[in-house]
Amino acid sequence: MADSPGDNQELEWIKRAQRGDADAFGFLVERYQRRVFSLAYHLVNNREEIEDLAQEIFVKAYLGVRGYDGRSSFATWLSRVAVNHCYDYLRRRRTSRVLYFSQMNEEGERALEAKAQSPRQEGVDVEDRIASRDLAAKLLGRAPAEDRVILGLKELEELSVQEIAEMLDLKESTVKVRLHRARKRMLEDFRRWQRGR
Amino acid sequence: MRCKETKDWFEGRGEGQMPASVREHLRTCVACRTDERDWRLVQTGFRALSREPVPDPSTGFLARLTRRLAEASLAGRAAAQFWDLVGRRVILVGSLLMLTIVIALMLPTSGPWRSPVGLDLSLLQAEVAVENDPVLPDDFGSNQSAAPNVQAGEDRQRR
After folding, report:
1. Is B8 helix (H, G, I), strand (E, B) or coil?
2. Which is deepest, A43, A123, B12, B35, by most CB within 10 Å?
């Protein structure tokens, strides 16, 4: 970690939070709330529940801040807490796979069908983008929690393999293998859906 | 390049510039071209999702959270005190129990509630047999000790 004044200030807040000072932890919340909101939103993709989720993540982090030993940056540690919480949430919430595609709106489905049947084009217009966005959201919604987390971090949070490995405390090779499997399963799911229509 | 290698590139390492060998394979293989189109479609969707604005914390989020943290802090402290108290009592009771067991093990192996050392069980059996065997008039006088009575009892059982 660098020794900038900001970092020293953060270290001070962390030490105070570790002694049970909720106000000091509040400063850390202010600094990282956007990061936690972004992670929770991209991994769970539910606007209604995001604030509750963020609160739960910060409470969990506050109760576990004594366990923070400074081996990684506080941002990485907090992100790990957030990812683990989102993973637990997704596992609890996982519903039937069949339900998701039935929820895809008709318009999006038609546009997607046309796109899938059309010859390859370099440019993607707005309608296609909306259909693709709908498709990606549904595919993510159907994916198992572990696939959803790793793909969310890579494709939506746009983190590098190295950053994901550090955040999840995994080897880079493990992250690559998990990404590979998740993408493969997602494409298989997409084709199954195309065949089933 | 074969189909499997092209697929692996798309699904696993499909980042950065597409290798010339993959491009070359796509020109000749219809199946891989379809795969590439599907993956491109999914990735376009991911990109669109990632560009969506993330919701901002509502006004009062921090105040509500700080209240919750204070509550969590109080609850945590109460729980810690409770477990501290319970822990101390468990340790005290456990220590007393251990002490009792140690004292019991250190006691001498004789006493009113222990069997005397070197007890002859055959003598005990003989005493029990005498108590159970009624003394018959024929035997009286000729058999004064306990042992012949035992013998007589055994003879009767054999008959």
Report:
1. helix
2. A43
The secondary structure of A17-45 as a DSSP string is HHTT-HHHHHHHHHHHHHHHHHHHHHHH-
pLDDT tens by residue, A1-13: 445 666 889 999 9
Range 68-97 of B in CB contact (< 8 A) with A: 68-70, 72-73, 76-77
Candidates B43, B65, B74, B81, partner chain A, best to mutate (most A CBs within 10 A): B65
DSSP state of B75: H
Distance CA A130, CA B151 (A): 109
Q: Which amino acid is at A18?
A: Q
3-state secondary structure string across A181-192: HHHHHHHHHHHH
Give the pLDDT score at A2.
45
C-alpha angle B54-B58-B63 in degrees, rounded to nearest 5? 130
Residue B33's alpha-carbon distances to A54, A189, B38, B87, in angstroms, are 42, 18, 9, 67
Dihedral sign (CA A77, A82, A85, A90): negative
CB contacts of A134 in chain B (<8 Å) are: 45
B6-48 confidence digits (pLDDT tens): 877 766 555 567 788 888 888 899 888 887 888 788 888 999 9
Q: Tell me, what's the ipTM?
A: 0.75
**If you ran DSSP here, which 8-state letter would residue B30 be given?**
H
Residue whose C-alpha is closest to residue B62's, from A37, A185, A183, A2: A37
Contact B116, B106 (CB under 8 A): no
Structure tokens at A32: 């990282």
Tens of pLDDT, residues A128-176: 777 888 888 989 988 999 999 999 999 999 998 899 999 999 998 899 8
Rounded to an integer, what is the distance from CA A44 to the centroid of its chain? 7
* Complete domains list, chain A, with CATH: 1-94 (1.10.1740.10), 97-197 (1.10.10.10)
The domain ranges of chain B are 3-51, 60-109, 121-158
Query: Is there a contact between A75 and A96 (Cβ–Cβ < 8 Å)?
Result: no
Across chain A, mean pLDDT equals: 82
